[in-house]
TrEMBL record:
Residues making up the signal peptide according to the UniProt record: none
EC nos: 2.7.7.7
Domain DNA-directed DNA polymerase family A palm: 689-894
InterPro entries for the chain: 3'-5'_exonuclease_dom, 5-3_exonucl_a-hlix_arch_N, 5-3_exonuclease, 5-3_exonuclease_C_sf, DNA-dir_DNA_pol_A_CS, DNA-dir_DNA_pol_A_palm_dom, DNA/RNA_pol_sf, DNA_polI_H3TH
Protein name per Swiss-Prot or TrEMBL: DNA polymerase I
NCBIfam families: pola, PRK05755.1
Lineage: Bacteria, Pseudomonadati, Pseudomonadota, Alphaproteobacteria, Rhodospirillales
Primary gene name: polA
Length: 930
């Protein structure tokens, strides 16, 4: 305890967010994010080495709710929750502070800024000098009278001169200016229409806020005068919100901040636990001298290398072991635990992860070193040459009991200090979960490849092994055969099973070493760590939940669709003048283009007439009845076979629900795709499609809840292209298509011809996909010339869109890809092609950041929702994702709370220049909820 001379007050809460957003994502071996922890640790080392302060403390926010919430309940109400990947770093940063032997101060009911203001006031009263380590503008009101600020990232002082540059007034007038201009980030209302520049002019002219408000009637500008007089009370409330409290009854005395030397062993241990190997090395393994370590200057130097990120190298030898004894299994588990990282792969009896049986597990702990642990191989198949195992092994080894293997693997799978790496690990999570094993933390080489290279190539293990390692893997057909002769893996001889399964784990680990290291160099850490990796477990949980379908309703629909198809066939035969097989393209082509001699017929390379949807739609638009009937028949046939019939067959006999499978690494833009069954292609604008959705129902006592982003792609266009007219319309909650029609065609909204709105809607959506005059003309049934006039008028009114389109195309030409708001690369391979392919590439470049951005936003929401639902104590379950829509099963008693929660999380998934709006509906079926 001593009297301070120079006090350092570190704004811990402010620095956490700057470090988090300023550094690429970093994770420990157990998967815990630590980029903010790293930034904070290096900053503290630098500060403590360079400062002459004799008193130091780090000040944190204790909670969002403070006394200001009582003054104005909406204060900070629009702030989104902290990013999910930042939350686990809060306690680690407090732990880091203690490791430096520095007080970590926080107090319920008050913000960190209030504590800083109080301690600064106390220090100045004692004759001390104060340095506030922060660049937060809200703290600038404290500058002066022995108090200065210091920006820790830029390393520059913030004195009265810099405050005047920022606010146009000296520090003692900052509160008055902020009271007028407000703060949208903290939801401080201020006075509408008054920004910092105007506020500074007014305070300079009138001296202070009270004088200004008392003399507001003297202001010459009518609008400004009226606004100030109307919102005088709100300005006073805003002052109470922005003015820092300098007399908090603090618990920790200022004198207790006396600077103390860090405990070297404690600090070294903390740095080692986080995996900061470069910092650990500079600490000298816990020596007493704390070296000068500068804060990271760039993202590329911020992340220390780890063993998992070392470049992959071909192993000198291959060591694959067949594990058939408890001692051997124990040895492998211990080896994996020591390594802190293990590749894991499962072999099963089939591809359906929710029905297949576990046959064996393979592990790899180092390049070229792996094992296979069989648990279900028939005795007859447990024989073989065992060429790769111990030569002394018995000819017919007895495999370990399944329960013994699972119990031995259980602690390894759950160990938070061991990273489990898989290739398409979502499948393995299902298999191991059904076996009673929870697996975490995880990495996925398929997702790593997808994040790095997008759709520029496939992400199967065989392809990646050949592409990155120059290794040709053993193929599944090599051990199981193909076609009718194919056997299940439990019938594969153990020597062949060992070679195949162990190689899978080995290659996975080697790919991981290569691909994980590229993330940082290619600035893709954030996309992987905050979007793709956490999503794998979320989607796996959704797939396990499945959704209930009404079997009798589907069977009835199948009969109805069949009857209507039969009627349509009669109509088609009557129009053709004779019967023929309507499902036969060859017979149909002959009827349309030879017998009926309809125009526009084209032949394929095989010499048959083209009868695809495009050809039939063009004929239907020309008024020909038979092609129109045929399109209706095909639509019903698809719904009947794909859904009405197939869904019943796809009901899981154990759960009595349908479980779709989501592919995480297929689409160009980052969207998920659905299969077995595909629930993303059910038409929602047709009566028949709605009938299919009506067959998706909740369990008794529940409802289905559908939450759909409203016009998210248009909102992204407005944001990305910076279109002020559209942004303001979205902020106002206006009819965006009517607004567009009004601005483009120069007509008032009141009494607008509906056809104009329809045309504006077609252009609004069409421009995202690079619609041409020909395409718009076909869509609206107008001439090409008229369509071109509309598009030209649209670009004339919103030139920002054309600018954005040109930027996107140029970015694709320069890089081969475009990027979303969140850093995802959307590859555009055809951007430099010739002819029609180039036009296709240009449209993909324009649409990529928009559709990819929408995919990223809903993924961010999906990652946060399960945790929020669990924290609320809700029994609601997230079941489906269909493009911009999420579907939940919710207990009837929780409808209102779940609706509010889902809207809050989804609408807060991203901060754009326009609001995100989510439309929520509930009902006794998916159709009723939509």
């Amino acid at each position: 305890m001593s009297t301070p001379r120079h006090v350092y007050l570190v704004d811990g809460s402010g620095f956490i967010f700057r470090a988090f957003h300023g550094l690429p994502m970093m994770t420990r071996a157990d998967g815990t994010p630590v980029n903010a922890v790293y930034g904070f640790t290096t900053m503290m080392m630098k500060l403590l080495n360079e400062t002459d302060a004799d008193h130091v403390a780090v000040i944190f926010d204790a909670a969002r709710k403070t006394f200001r919430s009582d003054i104005y309940p909406a204060y900070k109400a629009n702030r989104p929750p902290a990013p999910e990947e930042l939350v686990p770093q809060f306690p680690l940063i407090r732990e880091a502070t203690r490791a430096f032997n520095v007080p970590a101060v926080e107090q319920e009911g008050f913000e960190a800024d209030d504590l800083i203001a109080t301690y600064a006031t106390q220090a100045v009263a004692l004759g001390a000098r104060v340095t506030i380590v922060s660049s937060d503008k809200d703290l600038m009101q404290l500058v002066g009278d022995g108090v200065e600020m210091m920006d820790p990232l830029k390393g520059r002082a913030i004195a009265a001169e810099q405050v005047v540059e920022k606010f146009g007034v000296p520090p003692d007038k900052v509160v008055d200016v902020q009271s007028l201009c407000g703060d949208s980030t903290d939801n401080v209302p201020g006075v509408p229409g008054i920004g910092i520049k105007t506020a500074a002019q007014l305070i300079t002219e009138y001296g202070d806020l009270d004088t200004l408000l008392a003399r507001a009637a003297e202001i010459k500008q009518p609008k400004r005068r009226e606004t100030l007089m109307t919102n005088a009370d709100m300005a006073r409330v805003s002052r109470e919100l922005v003015r820092l409290k300098r007399d908090v009854p603090v618990v920790e005395p200022l004198e207790s901040f006396a600077k103390r030397q860090p405990a070297p062993e404690l600090l070294a241990e903390f740095v080692r636990e986080q995996g900061f190997k470069s910092l650990s090395a500079r600490l000298g393994g816990g020596g007493a001298t704390m070296p000068k370590i500068p804060a990271p200057k760039s993202a590329t130097s911020a992340l220390p290398p780890t063993a998992a990120m070392a470049p992959a190298a071909a192993p000198d030898k291959i060591e694959y072991e067949l594990v058939t004894s408890v001692a051997s299994l124990d040895a492998w588990v211990a080896e994996a635990t020591r390594a802190g990282i293990v590749a894991i792969d499962t072999e099963t009896t089939g591809l359906d992860a929710l029905r297949a049986e576990l046959v064996g597990v393979s592990l790899s702990t180092a390049p070229g070193r792996a094992c296979y642990i069989p648990v279900k191989h028939s005795p007859a198949e447990a024989q073989g040459s065992l060429l790769l195992s111990d030569p002394g092994a018995p000819e017919s080894p007895k495999i370990l009991p399944r329960d013994v293997v699972l119990e031995k693997l259980r602690p390894l799978c759950a160990d938070p200090s061991v990273l489990k790496v898989g290739h398409n690990i979502k499948y393995d999570l299902h298999i191991l979960n059904r076996a009673g094993l929870e697996v975490a933390p995880i990495d996925d080489t398929m997702l790593l490849s997808y994040v790095l290279d997008g759709a520029s190539h496939g992400h199967g293990m065989d392809e990646l092994a050949q592409r990155h390692l120059g290794h040709s893997t053993i193929k599944f057909a090599d051990v199981c055969g193909s076609g009718k002769a194919q056997i299940t893996f439990d019938r594969v001889p153990l020597d062949k099973a060992l070679a195949y399964a162990a190689e899978d784990a080995d290659i996975t680990l080697r790919l991981h070493a290569l691909l994980k290291g590229r993330l940082l160099a290619e600035h893709m850490v954030t996309v992987y760590e905050t979007l793709e990796r956490p999503l794998a477990t979320i989607v796996a949980a959704m797939e396990r939940e499945g959704i209930k379908v009404d079997s009798p309703a589907l069977l009835a629909l199948s009969e109805e669709f069949g009857a209507r198809m039969a009627e349509l066939e009669k109509d088609i035969h009557a129009l053709a003048g004779h019967e023929f097989n309507v499902a036969s393209p060859a017979q149909l082509g002959k009827v349309l283009f030879e017998e009926m001699a309809l125009p526009g017929g084209k032949k394929t390379k095989t010499g048959q007439w083209a009868t695809g949807a495009d050809a039939l739609e063009e004929l239907a638009l020309q008024g020909h009845a038979l092609p129109a009937r045929l399109l209706d028949w095909r639509q019903l046939a698809k719904l009947k076979s794909t859904y009405a019939d197939a869904l019943v067959a796809q009901i899981n006999p154990d759960t009595r629900r349908v479980h779709t499978s989501y592919s995480l690494a297929v689409t160009t833009t980052g969207r998920l795709s659905s299969s077995d069954p595909n629930l993303q292609n059910i038409p929602i604008r047709t009566e028949e499609g709605r009938k299919i959705r009506a067959a998706f129902v909740p369990e008794p006592g529940n409802v289905l809840l559908s939450a759909d982003y409203s016009q998210i792609e248009l909102r992204l266009v407005a944001h990305v292209a910076g279109i002020e007219g559209l942004k303001q319309a979205f902020r106002d909650g206006a009819d965006i298509h009517a607004i567009t029609a009004s601005q483009v065609f120069g007509v008032p909204i009141e009494g607008m011809d509906p056809s104009l709105r329809r045309r504006a809607k077609a252009i609004n959506f069409g421009v995202i996909y690079g619609i041409s005059a020909f395409g718009l003309a076909q869509q609206l049934g107008i001439s090409n010339g008229e369509a071109k006039t509309f598009i030209d008028a649209y670009f004339a009114r919103f030139p920002e869109i054309r600018d954005y389109m040109e930027r996107a195309k140029q970015e694709a030409r320069d890089n081969g890809f475009v990027t979303t708001l969140f850093g995802r690369k959307v590859y555009v391979p055809d951007i430099n092609a010739k002819g029609p392919l180039r036009a296709f590439g240009e449209r993909a470049a324009i649409n990529g950041p928009i559709q990819g951005g929408a995919a990223d936003i809903i993924k961010r929401a999906m990652i946060r929702l399960p945790g929020e639902i669990a924290a609320a104590g809700s029994k609601a379950r997230m079941l489906l994702q269909v493009h911009d829509e999420l579907v939940f099963e919710v207990p009837e008693a929780e409808i209102a709370d779940t609706t509010a929660l889902v809207k809050r999380v989804m609408e807060g998934a991203a901060q754009l220049d326009v609001p995100l709006v989510v439309e929520v509906g509930t009902g006794a079926s998916w159709d009723a909820a939509h």
